[in-house]
């Protein structure tokens, strides 16, 4: 599969901006703590803003939809579900993307593509043909599904955990517990 294209990643809009703002605020707070009370106290305070950054990452950035020619991977918080295209019966937008499987199971996607809104045009301008279609993440998913090679309809779903993100969360929680024990 060396010639295979990398998967197309669909994230919630604004999630990277929110993560960036959260990181900037956390760094400013930690630098301020280091300047005012020293590195040791900053290390005791550090797990709390870092846990906030971790939560924003898990909810906003890690939760996404990835699609390629074989299927799609939906990550909701820390859980990943790999869905082969033959198992997808329908994809629709409700409050978020919902994928209906051939057995009737519905997989909701916390992060992922969204329908694009109609663009406002300046007075005297006309709508360009085909622009809305190229901006629509749902349409891109449907195109990937339509272009996929047919596969076995009994392909299994694969459910896994995001182990790296879980490990980082556990380290931050242990660090926070140690900070509380040291300060008491």
From TrEMBL:
Membrane-crossing segments per the record: 12-31, 43-62, 164-182
Keywords from the named record: Membrane, Transmembrane, Transmembrane helix
Domain of life: Bacteria
InterPro entries recorded: CFP-6_PH (IPR019692)
Pfam families in UniProt: bPH_6
Boundaries of every Low molecular weight protein antigen 6 PH domain copy: 65-108
Protein name: PH domain-containing protein
Natural source organism: Microbacterium bandirmense
